[in-house]
Amino acid sequence: MNSPDISYVVSCFNRPKLLPVCLYSLAAQTHKDFEVLVTDNSVDEDVASRHRSTVSGMKDQRFRYYRTANKIKISDCYWSAEWAIRHHASGNWYCFPCDDTYYVPEFGQRMLSAAYRENWEFVVCGGAVVGPAASGGSGYRVWEMQIGRTIKTSFLVKASRFTKFHAKPVAENAAAGADYSFGAHLVRSGVPWGIVPEVMLVHN
To answer: pTM of the entire structure?
Structure first.
């Protein structure tokens, strides 16, 4: 069996209403050669059951569900995603959606096309429409991507370049610690990288 182009490793945690939108946006991708690994770090059995049902309801063998609660040392979606990569991912590229992310249909196609055209191994999208929870207000705003402000939902990284998230959760912004450190690590390592400005996503 050939490896898919992209492994989308989706982290979900106690938010069953959000997961379907993320998964349907991946199912609608114009680039079809991918797998989706849903990692569930929920401790609530009812929530986990809803997540599992959502994945099975996709009726697509590319979508697989993994319960990571009690499998990892840190209760955090970043290490949950890393666990799935270590044990189950087979793609040539990795992407790290959260359950509250929506991708435009051309996301994978445009990101991969740019990577192959420019010989990049780390590809960041141009921006994200960030929701109220992230912006601290009632409206949405555009978050322009930079290497110093990279969120994990916004990039593809070549599988051979993935080692681990080089950070532990820190204080109030645990998630960003892993994202920023990993992106900075890749750049310091001399990995060829670039930004695709016309590609955006919605991250609540």
So the answer is: 0.87
